[in-house]
Write a structure and sequence with these properties.
The complex is a heterodimer of chains A (463) and B (567). In chain A, the strands form 3 sheets. Chain A has a 5-stranded parallel beta sheet, with helices on both faces. The radius of gyration of chain A is 23 Å and the shape is globular. In chain A, helix 7 packs parallel to helix 11. In chain A, 46% of the residues lie in helices and 13% in strands. The longest helix of chain A is centred in the C-terminal third of the chain and has 23 residues. Chain A has 3 domains: 138 residues, 3-Layer(aba) Sandwich (Rossmann fold), CATH 3.40.50; 126 residues, Rossmann fold (3-Layer(aba) Sandwich); 159 residues, Nitrogenase molybdenum iron protein domain (Rossmann fold), CATH 3.40.50.1980. With 463 residues, chain A is α/β, with parallel strands linked by helices. Among the domains of chain B are: 124 residues, Rossmann fold (3-Layer(aba) Sandwich), CATH 3.40.50; 38 residues, no CATH class. Chain B has 23 helices and 14 strands. Classes of the chains: A alpha/beta (463), B alpha/beta (567). One iron/sulfur cluster sits at the interface of chains A and B.
């Protein structure tokens, strides 16, 4: 397995091998599914749309619908206006969504299709029925990654929909509402964030929200537009909120900043609530800006997490870990690993962004000064680095499982995509309870490995 | 769904009305276009179906792109051919390990299916061109992996910005001294994956086939074309043929090496599984090297037996014919009890199949093996000949999309054109009812008035389920959970839902069992909770004494084990 990968690292400038990122539109499609009654639309050739739907379906095991402009050579040469117009006409007639969220592909970006103009024209020609919405995001994959695409679509929601109604500050503060922009996390995580928010008693609008869209119960019925997702009215009202809590520099902060510029809504720019202190910050922000007390039940969840951290500390302490994934995920998770006194050794993301290195240097500074922190890097290089200096644990998406197998290193699946296990579809990783689940997975991986590999005399009943 | 329900037959429904119902919601232009792709079958005289035409924008389709057909389907499984996708990161990423073409390369060979290599094109290259970066990527790949050969696969932006991958290939071939080949398989080049198959066929034929003239030593030597070893299908076929004494030089493309492809023109016969994706190579090999091709099908026990007999007849050897009969008898002995057991349970149940370019036809045989009925079927990216039979080939109009794709001009090779049969032998076989270069298509084997639907849309699939209430549907990943949310089990026929193999006799047994599992799972029966079924059925509150509790199990005896239960 992977036997073309050698420890010797030859310089590479042009060749990407086993990427740790993918392209923008899949993120935009995922974000769009977090709007209630939304049809994501891929403006380009149908292959991209097919790939993105397939891949999201494999991760969620749920229906993922999206339409495409189905470009062939003609559209590629003469522009995609006719295709877009026909697509919108078909979409509203046949599927009747409340809103269509258009994203571009490399193809429509290269030919320079002007989407706002197309939307405007379709509106004038009544192809978009009254009361229906079409929004868009530009998502060229020769820039950024799937995370950029996600962020751009969330920003697009703000650009097209959010509005300040002009109510006075006193009116807004009378019944204060907070926005939560959750980031590129799973429906189970979004559901957990909402549970915590409810427990806290804060009035919030969360967008996007894919819970109730991509984690549907089996009840014998298919609904193309299920009841979940942030409604258009909710997103509109985000301009009237007293503040925004945005989780993740890469996936969520751009939309929060856009909203600030557009509607003057201030924001708390946090990291994803993985682990203890990032969840603390989230709870603290909800408490302070939502004007509530932290209920005892949340305090108890925190206490149980902390109890596990003290009970199990010895199994985590000092373990060398390779973490690879999306930048927001890796930053927040690394923070948690530091809280557990683990030693991050390789902290990699396939996406680009200096903030990643800057932030992780801060987090790891004193704790693991030798850690290798890299952005815009791939799994091939991670494997080579591991060959040169091994680790005790790999944390990454499903693609990392090949490295785990060939190097016989325990492995925890985390992030996007997970194509071969079921837990992420139902159990959250965010919040205190999510942190417990992450701990359990890490601990199981390490101890299962020890139980399988250790000498018989060291095979112990109790750990 | 309970086992007794759903035994209505197709004829009780008026398929014309079903078709009208499917089309009702569409805008006029869309309805007109889709109307040509939804056909009421006539097996005696298959009506013309609209196929290999553009998908209407805005329609939720199963189809993918030309790149997917070239890179993902035909080229991907050649395991020691290093393949670099030229383009932005996504296209190559999604094609990485997502098709289940299993391979087991010999020890020490690098399996490039585990690697996703691409040029991760950035804005700079979009603006200034990507040829330099591509050349550099090839150099780097060579320096790291030292492969025998390299293929470059193009994605949409490549064609638009005008990168010449063929020029880069020539330049690198010279520089590195290995075979480097380019494929212009940009996604927009055709209306579906199908264009990509054709482009890959051309590339393999031009650049690989014929590079090694040394045949494998074997009395009966053939290739299996259009078989992709999903879940190990090609291994089942290979094992079966080997049992019969037939050697397979190359399977295109399943668990196949670059070297095997190089010499695959040295065989006596080509057997074509998936006609859609590979008939071009079969045709070109016949023209250039004189290798006859026949349609084969190893999906379904009856189909497999028929195919083996056809191959034996071709080789015209008593020894082989006897051996084939022996093998069929042996295999059937093991298969029959399973088939009968499962047939008894599921006979008359209804299946519908919408997938690919051959599977929606081939898998009908497996369902028929166990007495199930096909209520509707259609391909995702096939052409008219795959529905109506190759006899319609001369009447197919070449439209603007197909004209894009190069038709190679092939002539008989002056030295290497060596047909394994003389024209007289061929004529004699044909006189005896043997069909060379023929595929009769899906329609002749389907019942009158069943609906044949090309490139089925999401909306039509929903209607079909509502009206026909099939017991099981064969489809792909994008539809699977839509269908299952409606309470109908769905078998993915691209990936087999990560099970299989389903080819040949052993595979057929797996498939019967899998269908049985899917049709008898309890899960669909749990959908309605007990309080909705019968609000009065809650466990009542009762008083229990300690003595009663103690006595409760006292009188119980373990039932005697049924005879042979331990066996
Ligand atoms: S062309 Fe661009 S958008 Fe489409 S799959 Fe490839 S990288 Fe993604
Ligand atoms: S960009 Fe083109 S080649 Fe790539 S997936 Fe999309 S349609 Fe296919």
């Amino acid at each position: 397995m992977l036997n073309g990968t050698t420890a010797e690292i030859k310089p590479r400038e042009a060749l990407r091998i086993n990427p740790a990122k993918t392209c923008q539109p899949i993120g935009a499609m995922y974000a769009a599914l977090g709007i209630n009654g939304c049809m994501p639309h891929s403006h380009g050739s149908q292959g991209c749309c097919s790939y993105h739907r397939s891949h999201l379906t494999r991760h969620f095991k749920e229906p993922v619908v999206a339409t495409t402009s189905s470009f062939t050579e003609g559209a590629s040469v003469f522009g995609g206006l006719a295709n877009m117009t026909q697509a919108l006409s078909n979409i509203f007639t046949i599927y009747n969504p409340k809103i269509v969220a258009v994203h571009t592909t490399c193809l429509s970006e290269v030919i320079g299709d002007d989407i706002p103009m197309m939307i405007k024209k379709a509106k004038e020609e009544k192809i978009i029925p009254d009361g229906k919405y079409v929004i868009h995001a530009n998502t060229p994959s020769f820039v950024g990654s799937h995370v950029t695409g996600f962020a751009s679509m969330v920003t697009g929601m703000v650009k097209y929909l959010a509005e300040a109604s002009g109510k006075s500050e006193a009116q807004l503060k009378a019944e204060p509402q907070l926005n939560v922009i959750p980031g590129y996390i799973d429906p189970a995580d979004m559901r957990e964030l909402k549970r915590i928010i409810k427990e806290m008693g804060v009035k919030t609008v969360m967008f996007p929200d894919t819970s109730g869209v991509l984690d549907l119960p089996q009840d014998g019925q298919y609904r193309m537009f299920p009841s979940g997702g942030a409604t258009i009215e909710e997103i509109k009202s985000s301009g009237d909120s007293v503040g925004t809590i945005a989780l993740g520099h890469f996936a969520s902060h751009p939309a929060a900043i856009e909203l600030d510029e557009k509607c003057k809504v201030p924001s708390a720019l946090l990291e994803l609530p993985y682990g203890l202190t990032n969840t603390d910050k989230f709870i603290h922000a909800l408490r302070t800006h939502g004007g509530v007390d932290v209920p005892g039940s949340i305090g108890q969840e925190r206490g149980r997490l902390l109890d596990a951290m003290s009970d199990m500390h010895q199994y985590f302490h000092g373990k060398r870990v390779a973490i690879v994934g999306d930048p927001d995920h890796v930053i927040a998770l690394t923070q948690f690993l530091v809280e557990l006194d683990m030693k991050p050794a390789y902290v990699f993301t396939g996406s680009s962004g200096k903030h990643f290195e800057q932030r992780l240097t801060e987090i790891l500074g004193n704790h693991a000064p030798d850690a290798m922190i890299k952005q815009n890097v791939d799994l091939f290089e991670l494997h080579q680095q591991i060959k040169n200096n091994p680790v005790d644990l790999i944390i990454g998406n499903t693609y990392s499982k090949y490295i785990s197998r060939v190097e016989n290193i325990p492995f925890v699946r985390f992030g996007f995509p997970v194509l071969d296990r079921m837990g992420h579809r139902y159990f959250p990783a965010v919040g205190y309870m999510g942190a417990l689940r992450l701990m359990e997975k890490i601990n199981d991986a390490l101890l299962d490995h020890k139980d399988r590999e250790c000498a018989e005399e060291n095979f112990e009943l109790i750990q | 769904m309970s086992e007794e329900t759903n035994t209505t037959t197709v004829t009780e429904l008026d398929p014309a009305a079903v078709k009208a119902e499917m089309l009702k919601i569409y805008p006029a232009k869309t309805a007109k276009k889709r109307g040509k792709q939804i056909i009421l079958n006539d097996p005696d005289n298959p009506p013309e179906i609209g196929a290999n035409t553009r998908t209407v924008p805005g329609i939720i389709t199963q189809r993918g792109c030309t790149y997917a057909g070239c890179r993902g389907v035909v080229m991907g499984p050649i395991y020691d051919l290093l393949q670099i996708t030229h383009g932005p990161v996504g296209c190559g990423y999604y094609a990485w390990q997502t098709r289940r073409n299993l391979v087991r390369p010999p020890e020490g060979t690098t399996n490039y299916l585990q690697y996703c290599m691409n040029t991760d094109m950035q804005e700079d290259q979009i603006v200034f061109g990507g040829e330099k970066k591509l050349a550099q990527a090839i150099r780097e790949a060579y320096a790291i992996f030292k492969p025998k050969a390299i293929a470059i696969l193009s994605t949409c932006p490549v064609g638009l910005i005008g990168d010449d991958v063929h020029a880069v290939a020539r330049q690198m071939k010279e520089e590195l001294g290995i075979n480097v080949m380019g494929f212009s398989c940009e996604g927009y080049k055709g209306v579906s994956q199908s264009a990509g198959h054709h482009i890959a066929n051309n590339g393999v034929f031009k650049n690989i086939i014929g590079l090694d003239d040394k045949p494998d030593e074997a009395e009966f030597n053939m290739n299996i074309l259009g078989e992709y070893n999903i879940g190990g299908d090609a291994w089942e076929i290979d094992t079966l043929l080997r049992k019969c004494g037939i050697h397979v030089t190359a399977t295109l493309s399943g668990d196949v090496s670059y070297d095997q492809v190089k010499k695959c023109h040295t065989v006596q016969l080509n057997g074509v599984m998936c006609h859609r994706s590979i008939n071009y190579i079969a045709e070109m090999m016949e023209k250039k090297f004189g290798i006859p091709w026949i349609k084969v099908n190893f999906i379904g026990a009856e189909a497999t037996a028929k195919t083996l007999r056809k191959i034996a007849k071709f080789f015209d050897s008593k020894k082989l014919t006897d051996r084939v009969e022996e093998v069929i008898a042996q295999e059937m002995l093991a298969l029959r009890p399973v088939r009968e057991e499962i047939k008894a349970k599921h006979k008359g149940k209804k299946a519908a199949l919408f997938v690919g370019g051959s599977r929606a036809h081939h898998y009908q045989d497996l369902f028929r093996d166990i007495g199930m009925e096909i209520v509707s079927a259609g391909y995702e990216f096939a052409h008219r000949d795959d529905y109506e039979g190759r006899k319609v080939l001369p009447t197919i109009k070449v439209d603007a999309d197909s004209r894009n794709i190069e038709e190679l001009h092939v002539e008989a090779d002056p030295e290497r054109f060596k047909p394994s049969k003389t024209p007289e032998q061929i004529a004699a076989l044909e006189a005896g009812g043997f069909n060379f270069k023929d595929y009769e298509g899906m329609m002749v084997e389907m019942k009158k008035l069943t609906l044949v639907i090309d490139d089925i849309s999401h909306h039509e699939m929903e209607k079909l389920i509502e009206i026909y209430k099939p017991d099981i549907i064969g489809s792909g990943i994008k539809d699977k959970f839509v269908i299952e949310k409606m309470g109908v089990p769905c078998k993915q026929l691209h990936s087999y839902d990560y099970s299989g193999p389903y080819a040949a006799f052993g595979g057929a047994i797996n498939f019967y069992r899998e269908v049985d599992r899917m049709l008898t799972t309890k899960v669909w029966k749990f959908i309605t909770p007990p309080w909705e079924k019968d609000p009065q059925s809650a466990t009542p509150l009762t008083h229990t004494t300690k003595t009663e509790a103690k006595n409760e199990t006292k009188a119980w005896r373990k039932p005697a084990a049924a005879d042979g239960a331990e066996g």
